[in-house]
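If you are new to this repository, start here. Below is one unmodified record pulled from the training split, so you can see the exact layout before writing a loader.
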Amino acid sequence: MLEPTNKDVSRFLVEADWLENHLNDSDILIIDATVQVKLWPFPRVVSGKYNFNKRHIPGAIFADLLKISDPNSRKRTFTMPHSDHFEYHMSRLGIDENKKVVIYDERENMWAARLWWMLKTFGFNNAVILNGGWHAWVMENRPQTRKLSQLKTTNFKSNYRPELIADKEDVLKAIDERTTCIISALGRRQHMGLKNEYGRRGHIPGAKNVTAWEILDRSTKKYKPAEELMKLFEPMFDQERIITYCGGGVAASSDAFVLSMLGHRNVAVYDGGLMEWCKDNQLPLEVET
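And here is the target side for that same chain:
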């Protein structure tokens, strides 16, 4: 089995005990990036701010991905905004090069990974994810508060990295490229075409399936050890480029985060995902039988 090429996961993840010991550090900025997925009475996504206002990690602030993402994108999508829009919201959160940003969420690290990927795409490299997020924090009986912290505005400057985001033309081209691998982060049934959540059934031709849930330990919601993660991604890891996708860019960011943590240097997220792909009937899909 291949070995992870990046041995220093501390540049990507921090544990709850580390964070509790650094809650009062002036150069640490803790961000809750939760978006809640509601299924009843109809599927929708809503801001996680309501729960944040009731309880959160001491000193944390809330980042509303519904507002930070492209304001012109379709509902339920979280596509990249223009640089000035992202700079405005990151400045409002108090992010600058002097801060180490620790991101967490309440749902399988995926929303934290999405904000992490957005920051990386806009050139900010000093962000990490709290391993296991709120779930691990509560399981370990770490401190909570409902006290809201004062936001300190900064002047965030972006440096956009277009190679970290793929569009549908990139994905269509990648289907026939031997040097590029496409990875679906969706659930098994959606990938196989047994479910239809996006207007058409199936997956992008040739895509491999590593779900954003199987990369986690079910009980702790922490990422599995690097050796286990490497085993999941081993068949694709030696490809020159990897493009991850899901429905709207969130679960795909979690797979992309793990691939980057393992040491792959050329990973992109297909931002439009199946919500864009399935709208165009000319674009191919495969259904497993």
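Two things worth knowing about this chain: The chain has two domains: 9-160, 163-277. The mean pLDDT is 94.
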